[in-house]
């Protein structure tokens, strides 16, 4: 199997590429990544020199680079995306471009040859905020942020190629991931690194929004199952079926880092903030025999260990352009914040 992994220099894509090369010894991986602010060559450093690994810097919206890199590939796993909800609220353009039009460019190239599978990585956010019960794969999509709407557009487009052209497309919808190499704009790495530095932990609203937290290696393993045994035309939810409020996550981070609880700040909420995501994962468990293996406490400990051992990775990010982003996103809200 020769796989094209787009977005492979990002958080989940790099963990997935590492798992594939370590556990599928005959497979080759070509990573295509634009190296946006979120894509980091350091995430793939240990794989350089592996003859089964190739890296190409390029944009999935560029048909010529996509054509060049997809040559000879049997399967495509599309992780490439703009991924942060808060950034999508500030400016949706790059989200619509990459998360929808980029998928079109990949699909057009994919269907030129006889290939095995196009795996479109989607998200539980396409279901919208789920007040009660759990989302199943056949539920109607009701995305509420520009990020979620763009991801819904991307996966619907992918499935339309299945219906229209018979393209072997499969879609996965995972819950919130956490683990090594996650860019520190997202809740867990932001709070972990802020706690290690004695900086505030800015909780949005009342801190009672709920998410299903999935350790990244569990997600990557599910994707391997889907690649090897998934059925074209299917959608697979990937999550743990358990949920935590953001306050609970914050408590766990205070405990594991030993940081002082006076760091916790309640700040103005994110506009349109989805209250709850919750997945029904019975289908992937039943049809592919996948189950998450890492519980939240263990996963958080593994994550803290990684951020402790890789301080230079996140200090370089946080001392660069991220500072401007952080100031624009948080400075005023932190001035008006309240503690517990
Ligand atoms: P990330 O932001 O860490 O990485 C995204 C990667 O895509 C980066 O390496 C970036 O350089 C690359 N990229 C962006 N635009 C590109 C373009 N136009 N062409 C080529 N490369 C481009 O994201 P992540 O958290 O690793 O998420 C990966 C995928 O998983 C995304 O599709 C996301 O929607 C999905 N997902 C993420 C989560 C989560 O909790 N992180 C949960 C469910 C689904
Ligand atoms: P995030 O990691 O941005 O993922 P998503 O919004 O895609 O689920 O946020 C996870 C939860 O944490 C979400 O309810 C928003 C909240 N949050 C905060 O309270 N403060 C923060 O600084 C961030 C980044 C997120």
Distance separating the two termini: 53 Å
Number of domains: 2
| Total strand segments | 13
Q: From the coordinates shown, what is the CATH architecture of the largest domain?
A: 3-Layer(aba) Sandwich
Fraction of residues in helices?
40-55%
Number of helices: 12
Oligomer: single chain
Note down, in words, how this protein is organized:
The protein has 340 residues and is an alpha/beta fold. The N and C termini lie far apart (53 Å). The chain is globular, with a radius of gyration of 19 Å. The protein is built from 12 helices and 13 strands. The model has no long low-confidence stretch (mean pLDDT 98). It folds into 2 domains: 203 residues, Rossmann fold (3-Layer(aba) Sandwich); 96 residues, Alpha-Beta Complex (UDP-galactose 4-epimerase, domain 1). The strands form 4 sheets. It has a 7-stranded parallel beta sheet with strand order 3-2-1-4-5-6-11, sandwiched between helices. Bound molecules: nicotinamide-adenine-dinucleotide and thymidine-5'-diphosphate. The site of nicotinamide-adenine-dinucleotide (NAD) has 30 residues, from helix 1, helix 4, strand 5 and strand 7. Nicotinamide-adenine-dinucleotide binds next to helix 1, helix 4, strand 5 and strand 7.
């Amino acid at each position: 199997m020769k796989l094209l992994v787009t977005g492979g220099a990002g958080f989940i894509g790099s963990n997935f590429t590492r798992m594939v090369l370590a556990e599928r010894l005959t497979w080759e991986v070509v990573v295509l990544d634009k190296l946006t602010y979120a894509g980091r060559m350091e995430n793939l450093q240990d794989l350089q020199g592996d003859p089964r690994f190739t890296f190409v810097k390029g944009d999935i919206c560029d048909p010529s680079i996509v054509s060049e890199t997809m040559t000879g590939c049997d399967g495509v796993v599309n992780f490439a995306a703009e991924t942060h909800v808060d950034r999508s609220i500030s400016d949706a353009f790059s989200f619509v471009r990459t998360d929808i039009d980029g998928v079109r460019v990949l699909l057009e190239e994919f269907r030129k040859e006889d290939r095995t599978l196009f795996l479109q990585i989607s998200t539980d956010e396409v279901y919208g905020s789920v007040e009660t019960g759990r989302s199943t794969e056949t539920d109607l999509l009701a995305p509420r942020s520009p990020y979620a709407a763009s991801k819904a557009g991307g996966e619907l487009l992918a499935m339309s190629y299945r219906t229209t052209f018979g393209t072997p497309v499969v879609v996965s919808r995972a819950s919130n991931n956490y683990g090594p190499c996650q860019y520190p704009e997202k809740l867990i790495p932001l709070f972990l690194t802020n706690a290690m530095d004695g900086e505030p932990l800015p909780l949005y609203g009342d801190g009672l929004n709920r998410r299903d937290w999935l350790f990244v290696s569990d997600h990557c393993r599910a994707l391997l199952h889907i690649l090897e045994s998934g059925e074209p035309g299917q959608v697979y939810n990937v999550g743990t079926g358990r949920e935590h409020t953001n306050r609970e996550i914050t408590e766990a981070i205070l405990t594991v880092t030993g940081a002082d609880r006076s760091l916790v700040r309640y700040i103005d909420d994110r506009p349109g903030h989805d209250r709850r995501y919750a997945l029904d994962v019975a289908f992937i468990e039943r049809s592919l025999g996948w189950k998450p293996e890492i519980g939240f406490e263990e996963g958080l400990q593994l994550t803290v260990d990684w951020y402790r051992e890789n301080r230079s990775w996140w200090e370089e990010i946080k001392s660069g352009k991220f500072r401007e982003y952080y100031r624009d996103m948080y400075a005023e809200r932190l001035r008006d914040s309240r503690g517990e």
